[in-house]
Each structure stands twice: as structure tokens, then as C-alpha cells.
Amino acid sequence: MNFFEKLPHIRNPEELSVYNKLRTVIWVFNIDNHSFWWANEPALKFWEVDSVEEFLSIDLSDDSPVVRERLNDIFLTGSTGDIVEENWTLYPGGNPKMVILTFTPILIGDLNRAVLIEASPELKEELDPRAKRILEAVRHTPLMISTFDLEGRLLAQNPAAANIYGSRSESMVTLENRYGDAKIEEKIQHSADILVHTLMGKRWHTLTAEPGRDPVSGNRVIVITEEDVTKRVQAEEELRKLNMTLEQRVVERTEKLSYARKEAENANAAKTDFLATMSHELRTPLNAIIGFSDMLSHKVYGPVTEKQLVALEDINRSGRHLLRQINELLDASTIDAGELNLFESTFSVASVTDYCNTIFQLEAAKKNQRLDVQVPDLSLALHADEYRITQVIINLLTNAIKYTAENGTIRLSVFRNSMGELVFEVRDSGIGISKDHLSRVSQAFTQIDISSSSTSGKGVGLGLYIVSHLLTAHGGRFDIQSEERVGTTVQAILPIERLV
Q: Which segments of 138-183 are extended strands (E)?
């Protein structure tokens, strides 16, 4: 059974009139339409409006994608029975107010998703558990984080940075004596590999410099994050030397071609191990970056300016994009190693399509595209790995949106074919793929040349490769039909034995 069916269903605002007798601030927020739906009398006073009509007319179009995504996560988390309570900064009348919000998922009207929100104006003296965990992650992450003022003086550093550079008086540390250059933030721009002197000797660090504000003084600061990539740089240098040696041997001694091929096979195995190892190494600090920027965007540590909020959204979005690519590398290395395992359960097909619809409606709207989801039979259920099936649909929709121009159309439909198999079909009006390239689209690390198209945002060429293997693991198959400048139709087909 879809757990959404267990949620309370409020068909009209009049059913909530009993809450007007309470002094507690309570209102209902429509997640699907991203708008207010109802408020009691104390809530109207809190939001500094005179009537429910004025409250419902409050414009929320400037809310960031991070806020929208968090509300979706809260609804899903609360729908499973977990209590969600968080510190938020709201802006009634344009003035910031820090409050504690308790969220209760409900259904309203025509089964729209919503949350009933109870607000407490008194801010707790200590941080909520989520903030504590983020701060603890920053303390224990191997990622080095340091804050300098605009004069180049060190203001603060996390334990990882102190362990690498030493914990001498922060007032004695400057950009120049740490990195050998007082203008380091101008040279590295956003990110660069730099050779630094540490307590462990010379090391290669990936440095990222970003502008920020000191939460104590309010002055502008430079936040520098570092990651030790010495092993990666050394491996790249060794690989470069190895390639040069192999090329020289091929030219000078063609009789050793068989030996060179064996070396190439070993290098490919090393590459798989390297990708798996480095992907794991990168995910921990990357999750810290995503979580930390998410907390800042939610104004847990205080108000931020619109310009800072845009920068935080860019950091968060870029981090999530990189994390998706790293996860794809991990999946590919797991598949190559023959270690792909399925964790099967029984679940509703509609729960998968509803989740994907929620995620991609906003992405499609950014390009003025129309995303249509059609599931005629809501009773369909599967016995499979729900996470992996969802991953298949996400990968197919991601490609469809990416390679479809603005004002295009994408349709996700679910049906049973003439053989009784279950088919997830994604059809788009995108740029299409030539017949010469169709046979290669599901190969690892393969991307079709789209330089002439208007698409943006490249991956690592693993999406359809992973889709193909996930379907094979379920006893299913993958089919793709495409025509240049007309569009592409992709079918993920599961055997009839998977249907409950």
C-alpha cells in the first residue's frame, strides 16, 4: 500500500476551523503548488496580515530550489512516521523571525501534498540535532577549512587544517606564510591544485577559495577549503610516465605488442580500482560541503543576503551534481567487479513515478518544457529493488530533459505490453540520435557528440550503461529508438514475474 494513503485528507479549509480556538500559530502549506492554503488567527498575526485572503496572496515565487527540495524531503520523511522539527528563519512583513517549526504531512483538496505547520517563536538555546551533526561532521572531516580576513590574517580553522599546518597562534598565520602568496585567492579563482608546505612535508592540495562573511563581526572574509590529493597527483604523474613508456615501446619494438596489451589491461583494472577508491574518498568531504551549504541556505546560523544565497545555491547544486557523477562511478565499478546486489521488496509503481514526477517537474520548468506522467493503472506493484528501479527512471528522465530543447515535451508512461511485461517508457521531442551512434549509447564512458545542440551540463557517460545493467540484473531489458531532430523513445522493460 502507498503510505500516502494513510495521511489525513482535508478537503476544504473549513474543516480546520477548530484550530482558530488555539493560541498556537498554525498554517497549512501546499507543497505541490508551493503556496499557502490556510491559517488560523494567531498565524495571521504572526504573518502580519489582516485576513486569510491577504495571507493566501503572499508571493513565494522567490523561494530557492533548496527550500522547495527541503519541503519535499520533509513531506517524505514525515509521511513515514518520523517527527520533523527544525529551526527556520521566516520573513513576515519582510522582517526575519527565527522560529521552531513542527511539520505534519497531510493531503488537501484534490489529494495535493501539504504540511500542517506549527510555529513556536521562541528559539531553542541550543542547535537542533541536524545542525549538531553538520557541525560535528565539519570537525571530523578530512577536508581542511580555514577562514581569512581581507588583510590575509587567519581567523579560524577546523581541526583537520590545524593537524596539517600546526596549531600555532592564529594571529601569526597569514595567506602569505601559509601558501607563499598573499593573493592566493585571486590566482586559484574557484579551485586549483597547489603544492603546499605542511607538517608532513610538501603535499598537493586542491584549494577552493570562496568569499563569505564573518558571523561574528559581519566583515567580508575568504573561506578556503583544501583536500589532500597528493596520491592522485602522483598517480597521474606515474600514469603519464607509463603512457610515454608504452608509446615509445610500441614505436621502437612492435614485436612486444602482446606485452603492451597486457599492460593496458592491467592499467584498465587499476583504473577501475582507482575510480572506486577515489569516489569513496571524495564522497565524505563532498557530503560535508553539501550539508554545510544547505544549512547556510536555510539560515540556521543567521540571515544571509540574496547574493550570498545565490552563491550557496550554486555550491549546493554543483556539489549535488558532482555527487551524482561520483555515485555513477561507484555503480559502474561495482558492476564491472560483478558485485551488484539487489535488495528486493514489494512496492507500488505509482510511488516511483510520483517521486520522479516531483523531482523533475521543476527541472523541466526551468527549460519551459512539459513533463507528462501517465500511469493508467495505479494498482500496479512490483517485487524488485525499489531504489534501483527509481534510479533507472531518474537516469532516463535526466537524459530526456538534458537533450530536449526549451519548450519541448517529455512523457513518462507505464503500461503492460502484449507479452504482459511491465514497460516504463520515456519519450521526448529532443535532438535525437543517429543510427550510427545508437549501438554505442549504453557503453561505459560513452557520450554522443552534441556540440551542435543547445544542451548543457555533461556527465561521465555512464547513465545508460548503468540502466542497461540494472535492468539485466532484474531479468529485464533495455530498448531505445531514436531519430535525429525528431526525438527519442526509451523503454525499460521488466519481466512479468516481477509484477505482484
A: 144-149, 154-157
The reported pLDDT for the residue numbered 272 is 65
Cα–Cα dist 487/432, whole Å: 4
Q: Per-residue pLDDT averaged across 448-459, rounded?
A: 48
Residue 438 neighbours by CB under 8 Å, 6+ apart: 480, 482
Q: Which residues face 424 on adjacent strands?
A: 414, 492
> Within 13 Å, how many C-alpha atoms sit on residue 190's CB side?
4
How far apart are alpha carbons 136 and 139 in whole angstroms? 5
pLDDT tens digits along 373-415: 998 888 899 999 998 999 899 989 988 998 899 999 999 999 9
User: In Å, how far from its chain's centre is CA 454?
Assistant: 23
Cα distance between residue 219 and residue 175, in whole Å: 17
Three-class DSSP category at 52: helix
List the one residue out of 338, 378, 370 whose CA is nearest residue 354.
378
Q: DSSP state, 95?
A: -
SS3 of 330-394: HHHHHHHCCCCCCCCEEEEHHHHHHHHHHHHHHHHHHCCCEEEEECCCCCCEEEECHHHHHHHHH
Q: Residue type at 161?
A: A
In the three-class reduction of DSSP (H, G, I as helix; E, B as strand; rest coil), residue 475 is classed as: coil
Which cell is 41 given? Answer: 488567527
Considering Cα of 59, then 61, then 67, then 72, what sign does the dihedral take?
Answer: positive
Count of helices and strands (H, E) across the chain = 14, 18
Local structure of 31: helix, strand or coil:
coil
Q: Are 493 and 422 in contact (CB under 8 A)?
A: yes
Q: How confident is the model at residue 257 (pLDDT cuts 50, 70, 90)?
A: low
What is the predicted pLDDT for the residue at 203?
92
Which of the residue ranges 49-63, 275-289, 445-459 would you say has the lowest mean pLDDT?
445-459
Residue 97 bridge partners (DSSP) = 90
Contacts of 388 (CB under 8 A, 6+ apart): 342, 470, 473, 474
Residue 270 has a CB neighbour count (10 Å cut-off) of: 14
Compute how many other C-beta atoms are within 10 angstroms of the C-beta atom of residue 38: 24
- The string over 240-269, giving b where at least 16 C-beta atoms fall within 10 Å of a residue's C-beta and e elsewhere, is eeeeeebeebeeeeeeeeeebeeeeeeeee
End-to-end CA distance of the chain: 12
Highest mean pLDDT among 180-194, 217-231, 239-253: 217-231
Dihedral in degrees, nearest 10, Cα atoms 340, 344, 348, 351: -50
pLDDT at 157 over 90: no
| Position 455 pLDDT exceeds 50 | no
Q: Among candidates 123, 186, 174, 127, which has minimal Cα distance to 148? A: 174
Buried b (16+ CB within 10 A) or exposed e, 151-160: ebebbebbeb
Cell of 295: 544549512
Q: Are strands 25-30 and 35-39 parallel, antiparallel or unpaired?
A: antiparallel
